[in-house]
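pinging the channel bc i need a second pair of eyes. not urgent but kinda urgent?? the chain im working w is below, pasted from the shared doc
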Amino acid sequence: MSQKADRSRQQELRTEKSATADSLTLESGLEALRSSPAFHGTVEPLDGLDDLETCEHIALFYRSREERFATVTPFIRQGIERGERVMYVIDDLPKSAILAELRGGDVDVDAALESGQLTFHSLEETYLRSGRFDPDDMLEVYADAIEEAKEEYPALRVTANTNFILDEYATLEDFMAYESRVNDLFRGEDCIALCHYDCERIPPETLVDVIRTHPHLVYEDTVCHNFYYTPPEEFFEPDEPTRDVERMLNTLVDRARARSELNETVAELEESNERLRRFAYVASHDLQEPLRMISSYLQLLDSRYADDLDEEAREYIDFAVDGSDRMREMVNGLLAYSRIDMDEADFERVECDDVVDDVLTDLQVQIDETDATVDLEPLPAVRGEAHQLEQLFSNLVSNAIKYSGDEVPRIEITGEKRGDRCVFSVDDDGIGIDPEYVDQIFDIFNRLHSNDEFQGTGIGLSLCRKIVDHHGGDIWVDSEPDDGTTFYFTLPAAA
């Protein structure tokens, strides 16, 4: 394909995305973080934002390059994926280093760069266009960028590092004036901005003003809606210190009351959950015996009176026995599920290599019947409960075999230590999962296939999540239909 034809096709794709894309709002921008496997932090719920001053302007406070790009990378990738115009203002890092951070995943960063969807700009082209920082001039830069983006793209997404405010050609007063006014520029537009602030380089007295001029903050992998935000029309007024005192005192009062109410709610929920856990345990335990009795008597009826029963009657008995057996499997699964929270065993060092060896031994018949191959890398040790971790790996490996489709199952198990956490993966090349259903697969009793297609209870993956949650970790999945599935999960590393 010629370069001209390629550019034409890229333009058509952008036009299609523009016609179908949702508006770019704070909610959709933060969804990039909430849904990204690269961001493992917390996003404060967006409920109740009507009670706060808000706009599409976010400040990122970071102390390391890794911390910085854990937020910047999913933010930029989502913009590219949505077909938006993405504008990156470079400060302390070269373009090549930034691209190395952005590449990866399913987003073609280089194609976006080549087509002009993703652009990089120097300080001299933006914040310092007139040789010094001028709020009016910079607001004009972004206003022009918004208008230009509207001609070809559904929205504009901007990100910029701001360490230049430490230099002599940018006064703090001018920069704060700009930051407080840019909120008005973005409000109501399909535009969102993420500014980066280096907490190690920028002095605290400057960061205080930065906090006051941003409605939304990202700090230590947590997205916060800012109670200390000061609207632009108030920021430079003479009586602002008085307003600050009142705002801070009211915030403390609101937080104290909210915390008191939250503690009461948490106590009630803990009591309710404890009752539900015990009910689930007792109910599932007590149901086993009558189900065994039903199944046994049906089979006894079939064996003793087989000659007196016609084919239709025997078929009915088979249906009843099958239903009873499946119900017993569900009850056993529910019993295992309810036991997770009731297991009070202390966590100890667990050698995951030994756990997986035991799992593969238990699954040897299933592996032999399907000619499955399991590639296993040396795994790190973790702090946990060995029996639960055996259930976790067993469910994931047996699922990988079950959902292999027509191909011979190929499974790869990996794990590595990252700081105080260990990240594991169980990868297969099976039938995959439609992205539409990825968020549902961990819900208890939620099955994507009928029992005629694949036998199961709908408890296995919910049990996996329960075990990982019980160990203080996270679990997520990366999958496409007909292109295999990879389950990732984290566990606490052994000391």
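so The longest strand covers residues 410-418. and Residues 240-304 form the longest helix (65 residues). — does that match what u expected or am i reading it wrong
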